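Aim 2, interim progress. The first record below pairs a target sequence with its structure tokens.
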Amino acid sequence: MSGHSFQNHSLAPSSPQRSPANSETDHIDIEEDGSFSDLDSGHPDEVDSVTGRPIPARPTQRYTGHKPPNTEEMLNIKEANNLFKSNAFKLQIDALLSSVRPTADSRLSLEGTLVELHKLLLSLPMVEPQYPYQAARHLEEIGIAVPFPVPRPMDGAKWRVAFEKPADIKVVGSWGSKVSIKQPDGRGFGVDLCLEMPDTLFQEKDYLDNRFFHKRAYYLAVVAQQIKSSGLSLDVAYQSPQEDLRRTRLVLWPKNSPLDDTITIYIHLSLSSSCPIPFHRLSPSHGNIRCERDSSQPSAITWIPSPLYNNQLLQAYTPIVHLLYIYKFTSEFKSFADALALLRVWANQRGYGEGKKSVMGFESLGNWWGFLLGYLMLGNEGDGKTGARFKPLGRGLSSYQLFRGALDFLAHHDFVNQPACLKSLSERKLDQWAHEWTGKPVFIDSSSGFNFLAGVPESSLKLLRHDASTTLAWLNNQEDPFELTFLKDLRDACLKFDFVFRIALQGLRSQGIQQPKSSDHGSYITAALKSVPEILAQALGDRVKHCVVIRRNALAWQVSKHEPGFPEEIEIGLILDPLNAFRLIDEGPLADDSESCAQFRKFWGSKAELRRFKDGRIIECVVWNASSPSERMNIPMWITQHILGHHFNLTSPDIATTHSMLYDLLTLPSDIMRHYSRNPAGTHTTAMAALDNLTRTLKVSKNLPLSLVSLRPISSHLRHTSTFEPVSINPEQYGHLPACAMFIPAMEVIIEFEKSSRWPDDLAAIQKVKLALLEAIANTLLSTKAVIKVDVVLDSAAQTLEDNCSLEILTAEAYAFRLRIHHDREKTLLERQFAPSLKQATTNTQYDQLKSALKLHSRRFIHGPRHHAAISILHHRFSAFSITTRLVQRWLGAHLLAPHIPQEMIELLCAQAYLVPCPYGPPATGHAGFIRVVWMLKEWNFALHTAFVPLYTTSTNHDSKEVIPNAPRSRERSGMKENSTHTGWKIATEEDPTGVVFGTVDDVVALRVRQVSSATWEYLKVIGEVGSMSVKDVFKHPTTDYDFIIHLNPSLQPRYFQSLNADPSYWTSHVKYKNVTPKSLDQGHIRVDFDPFISFFNDLKVNRLLQIAYKHSLSEFQAIYSGVAVFFFDPHGGTQIAGAWNPQALLSQPFKVFSSFSCVPDRSADKSKKYSVRLNTAAILAEIKRMGADLVRDVEVLA
């Protein structure tokens, strides 16, 4: 609905007009809402004079006092609902359009500057003709350099340059046609001023060998000198879009005025239609640049077609023609201006425009978007005979419909194979020139023959097609797509691409760029940059979907310099195809094709080799050696580095990427891995194979009282998401291992037996039966050679009603498993006793015990296996998902946050980056997924939204359109009964709409994660730009925010070898004598899942002694320091426990008997409070050190 629909409507009821026939007040009924009954509704006491029967009252019609909407307003309401998705979406668009357009004050303030500039330019004196170098020297003497394109005019040039005042001056571009919008990165608005150079300055042959561009450069330099010396309050500079000196323009900034830093004036030069340069000589097939002479014919001159050169010269004819085009569009199509503003905002937010980060080729294509819309509405010249054929869009469409139509066109149109030719405004129609751009993208203005897309890499247009398709998808599926479509800045390369390379251009030297190609592009560096994505796309092939160069907008440079400083670096972004990106071999031609083999070897250089395959083929190929999934993630990086070095002479220091360094954080030190001689290259797959062997052993056994149905894993080690791959330790070498490398993780597995009526109906008795079954399994395994060690384990402080026993097994492959028995009737018995009707018959303690037991059973036996299966499917569906999860766990652990976040919640967070990847696609590499998760955590407003992950529906291949909502989802709309005081994390799935099955993350930890993710994101954006930065610094955690640090003893930390900054001396100096016999296995010294540091960290939060003594549920335990301090720890070999005092606990409080914390009298408190106490921090830290014993080295108090 339009914003002015209710302007004339009063919200208060107006006074009704009484009917003369019913003026009595007793006939007026005032309703509760202030409206009136119909005055002609009849009176209940009236009777028919003939029949004597009462006259029935007519139906009451309510009069609300509001004026009904007129026809135009009704159409606006219908338009808002049908054409703009919703009324709110229409209002958002209206607000956006008003914010990106110049205000009336801005236009009025600029008028004075333009008038003064116009007077100055029309009064410029004439400069007599002179030779180019002579004219340039005169200007250099007064501090003005002439930006001659390369090659510059020679001293012996026979032609001359001159200057005369402009034949005409017009405001063109978007400002002149009143369709201007704000430029990105706070650069305000741009005003294009066109100066028409007089025809008398040019000759017929000026189209040859840059002569026109040299004359143009001199004319521009004279204008710059006159403006600079005029005394106008303007700063003057040169600017060359894409560093092409043939396109140099003047840039003016008003100074000492309200417009400073908001308005930029660009001065362009143009030619009139009567210019003596012959128009037909500017077609793409003509060669207008003199090349080297043919050695066989010394007198001959070689002319090679120069389409880009000719197109740049054609552009000088277009400013006025294009202004007329835009005027036609805005006058004939009512919604054109609004649709163009929406399209340009959308493009700027994705890098298709001027800015700090722009897709190469789109840095100066701002006017093309208007012609694209006009093309869709006018149609193709010749009805598709020379290009694309389609039906034009209707003239009555809304701005949003035109915007969607443009996106749909961009998402499906191929400008290379289907040239687009805009209908001509004059009798001259040059659409036939489209066929001369063979193999290049074409969008031609048929009036002038100018190709807007000349020089735009095909890879950039493919990325544009991808972004348009993505936007259309979420416009169709998202409930509120406005923010993602128009407001979000989506130019960050590290989020958009799977690989990002920063290339230093100082050493860029291309072997395949000859003089004709360099001259056609305007400079060697421009030609080399345009060839980079082409050669990389050829090398990567179907490994990538998109290979794009990202660069910043050309900077303005002083008028005293001849040319700009070329960009120091560019970025290359790759979006991979995960199905093909990580293959090990690139196959080439057969060995008997000598010509193709020679080309293959020339392209690949030293990497090309001749191999014979098993099927008998002998072919040229390239082989990439990678032994692990994380190494295979680096293959696209290796290809890029090799090709850039081979074809462009770039060395490793010139090619910066940080992604490969992340994978090193997931590998264990090589010098400690040699001790795991049983399987030093252990992987998740080998651990799963060990579980399969254990399953087969148990299924064939005849000694079990019940037949085994299944063994279902629920451990992250068995679904590829554990931080480190499981390794098997040779039991014979276990005694030689240092204490800092003796950790053996136990992998959780659920056992399910066949149904039997012999199970008891008592919960406590069920646990006893489980113990007996586990003992039977242990005896069965010990009778075989399938295991090394078996122990029946009772959970400490577990209740008698809940699952409290397990079986720890160390298999022959030296992998440890923890088996638990699932009995399906256990849940039924718990639900019966937990029924609300029985709550009055139980004590609060018993009721809480039942509640805790039911929650544990549901999480461990119901949701745990289901979650495990879904995550395993994701691992096979997205090859990078597991590596992403491992990196995120490593990152959270490095920042001491991992113990506070359940493993399942971390996996759900990472799954959201793949299942709900909006506004990007699913990442194809682990490092790209890690960066995406960090960005999501930074952007997630967890206080207002609960994240929703369609984990199970997607995993079972159901239709996901019905279950993928906006992410993150509103807690209110999720059907959650939220605690108003809780603002921590909750992650919901289809099977867990409450988001609490696997636990929650409290407010303190959630806020800390947001702080850490924000800092990490800011670091990742600039990493690589500063040489001293390393990606590993992202995993270094500062401790200045904490109140105290508990320093642990690394020599006793069984996971110390997993630490980020582990000191090898702790394990290299352990064994003095290699011939010392290790401890015997009979002594039972192999301890599975033994980590005293994790136990100590948990003891700081919960009093385990009370937990064991009183058998209460966890909520009733006396927390030692839960209300006093918060502790943080890295479970991956951390040697520090950081702590922060609760600010409320540090305040002075009245003394209480049986206080929950150690306190001392507060001497500084008000004397009126005789018995005030405060927290005894020194005693608490001393108690912590005493509790830790040898595990704690020292406790440091931070200022």
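The second target in this work package is listed in the same format:
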Amino acid sequence: MSQTNPPSSNATTIATTTIPIPQPPALPLLGNTQDVDPELPNSSLQRIIAQYGPIVKMAMLRRNLIVVGSQELVHELCDEKRFEKQVGGGLQNVRAITGDDLCSLKAFSRLISTNQHGTYISSTLAIAHRVLMPAFGPLSIQGMFPGMVDIAGQLVAKWERFADHKINVVADFTNLTLDTIAFCTFSYRFNSFYSTEPQPFVQAMGRSLKVAGSRTRRLPMTGFLYHKEDQIFAEDVKLQHDTADEIIQKRIDNPTDDKDLLNTMLKGKDPVTGQGLSPENIRSNMVTFLIAGHETTSGMLTFLFYYVLSTPRAYQAIRTEVDTVCGREPISLSHLPKLKYIDAALKEALRLNPTAGAWTVTPKADEIIGGKYAVSKGQPITVVLAALHRDPKVWGDDVEEFRKWYARLFQKFDFRPYDPGYQLKVKSTLTIKPVDFYMRVAVRKDAAPIAVQVQTAHEEVKPTAQLTPAPTPQGCPLHVLYGSNSGTCEAFARQFLAESTRHGCKGTIGHLNEYPSGGLPKDGPVVIVTASYEGQPTDDACHFVEWLKTADAASCKGVSYAVFGCGHPDWATTFMAIPTLLDERLSACSGTRLVDRGLGNAAGPNLPGEFEEWSKKFWTIMSDSGRIGSQPEESSLQLSARVDSSYRTTVLRNKHLSAAKVLSTKVLTKDGAPIKRHIEIDLGEEATYRAGDYLAILPANPMDTVTRAIRRLGLHADDVVELTSSGDSSESTLPIGKQMSAFDMLAGFVELDQPATLKNVRFLANLVKDDESEKAALDRLMTTEVYEEEVGKSRISLLRLMEDHPSIKVPLAPFLQELLPIRVRQYSISSSPLWKPNVVTLTVGILDAPHLSGKGRYVGLASSFLDRLSQGSLIRVTIKPSHVAFHLPPDPSVPILMFGAGTGVAPFRGFVQERAIQKAAGRAVGPALLFYGCRAKEEDLLYDEEMEAWAAEGVVSVRHAFSKKPEESSDCKYVQDRLYHDREEVRTLFDQAGARVYICGSPSMARGIEEVCIKIASEAAGKSEEEAKAWFKRIQAERFATDVYA
């Protein structure tokens, strides 16, 4: 229903017809307050704008609020003739801390006014404005540069002392910005880097800002409920004021000629009135500078380092720019204009996470904005910067990516994440900062000594602590590096490291990103075990790979190396892409290859065995070259198990997984069909995700499998086991020194159903005592042909071999050492954060089928774990972002084509759910075709009722392919058949409407879709098959996103 308003005399549009501003459903009394997370309000507003569109109206207790997030609307709001700044909410409450300061000034026009007689009036704020403006001119800022270098030098010195330790990035950048502002503007030293405790000023400031923000959410007449909080707030404000007063009084008692901001405020006179600033106004602005300057800047720097460490190209570009512009010289003012990439990176960090996330204006008169939305005089309109900075009309489809890519820090250090699996989490006071973001720093081997330039100050700098260097290990050095997303390559790497001790080596282990800019060790062999992820490096190898791609020809001279790669041959175009690249580039950069590259087939049954065979070749070459002895020593890691049958406990930790709660679980398939479940999981308030992402889950072995192992090992389920070690156990993945039940240890730490390797068979054969027939049977299995036929193809596990040979006594500790550590499993999320921002759903097929050996059943480790969950179950999970292309276009009007089979429909349910929520909120959504394959409608058609409802709303059109009953799906048996059947509609959406294509399913389905696309293109354009293939290869990277699972 439209309404007609007279156009504003100030409006730039001539439109007179207006439409209502979209608004989420409001609750009585509370309005829309429940739609906004009080801990992360800007994130909530960003989500609401994504759902309802670029302008949204919200009822917030005492007032209505309009929020906007598009460049088109914000451009209008920046017209100062029509709109003026409004200070309200949390910023208004901050005035209790900062007083009458320039930052919380409502509008510049309020600085100067006239009385009723037309007499010129100049307020205290106007005087402060004119006195302080010259202090922020370019020359004044340049004069602060030596002080900035001084404080930055203290950070450099600290990181140099604590190289390779866990660095609290937020805390260190908070200290950096606070100390820099205090020293450069007031010549005052907080000396934050010389104390292990946070500054009391910073703690008080953080608490008071949080209360200032939360006060806006208090219900009327409830102030008495916050007496304790208000008392602490008053004490914190007093501490900040007292700190400022102390600095001021110290300068008054000890005057200087410093041309800093404090002297400007103390001595400066207003050129108009001749007046100076009052002590109260000096204090107000001093507190403001300390709060506003250091809080936002420290957040920006922390976000910058998060994004740079997550974006290898950006990291290498910044490092190269610093080396090119600054070299080994001390950073100077002349360098700064040349650091264009760093400047762009800072702006990009602010684009993605503006630390001051919103600002508010109000119309000076009734207005019409966007040509159709009426807003009244005095109505608060808040610009949500995180939404504005993601407007796809300005920024394109890749708005979530860090795309544009502290010079001194990059001149001195290499950086890497402390936890490669860390996903960005944000906390909010009045500004936003990352939560729990840590990194490691390492002094660059080519770094020049940089003297810390200390400015003379009124406070004495405290001496720095010295660290005792770690002892140098003795023995033959060896360095094992891995690139691993799922944990398989890491497990192999740790297995290799353990084996190295038997050959007299003293090894180290780490991921490839620990060498983000080269500098591989030359004192011993470097062994690399890595996989590819859709042709890209794994998360913990991406920085090293990016460096190696362009490394110079002599950068690896003196490095001897060996590479083992894991890959799945169904990904034919990217099979072994990264292991091959590493092997070839290391050689091209003058490295010495010790052994031919190993190839591990992840689709085959003998991946661990292939790694063992490659390892043997490596050790043989090492032995022949004289680097190690000819006979391996007994392992220095000798475990023994102490069993206590009277005690129970459980110990399980993993640093990048967090607790999540199962809210509900239900079976989707009909009786008699293989079970597929829908599971709803609460991730907790700090978690964020996007439709199309994965949830990584730490599972446990099936109960029946664990029971079999306990029975075969001769244990009780509640026996308490404590593993002890006589050798170096620092890299072991077993819970050494922790007491826990036998059941928990076997359930949660090792892969019990992993196919047995030749090494496992040999281990079992060596345990045979006197039974010659038993020994002969196992020796027979160790011949390659028999092993592949009777063990490999049948996926016989070590446990099943032990059951087949019950007379062999197998001790617990050696058995555990033979097995791989349990790995996380990834599942596509089948929901949208617009539905519930902290809740995900999974669509899981439960694997429970007759074992290939014909003995018993094979039960999927992860799927059976999920099948056992019930409401209230706690599990350990983390969000894993999917490939950058496998997300919805930011503009919901872009058409999408989706292809999936079975549980491959999971991400597309999330896509369609998001589009449905956006459409229900009034947004225009583009056409969406879902091609979905399953056995039959009455067996395993998933989410049929939901999809029918969304289809009725015009959100999606579902095209089925029933493999058992193709007659019910236009005679189309598979998804690719249905694609060809509906090819004209698909071609129209793809060619004329710019549709994006998404594929989720098996490799064979993905290949089938590719073949049909090539066929359609060939027929439509009269191309040859080769021409059509070339066209498809070109367009694939731009418009296709594929998530293929084995």
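The first strand starts at residue 3 and ends at 4. This observation will shape the mutagenesis plan for the next reporting period.
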